[in-house]
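job 3f2a | input accepted
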Amino acid sequence: GTTSGDRARGFSDALVEAGIPRSQIRVIEGQSSYDGAYGAVLRTFRNERLPDAIFGINDIMAMAAMDALR
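job 3f2a | predicted structure (70 res):
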């Protein structure tokens, strides 16, 4: 697997181990880039309740998610 895929799986698995139902975990693709993550977050949460937390595969994606949610 890829490093990004390994990070996402590890984070999801840790959430499940902590008692979060897998059905409440959303994985959205952002091509590991600022623009990709920004667009993905806007599309995903445009008509949905905002998430309690977001995990970015890298710092650039995390910053893009925060900017998009603002």
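job 3f2a | Residues 2 and 22 are 21 Å apart (CA to CA).
job 3f2a | closed
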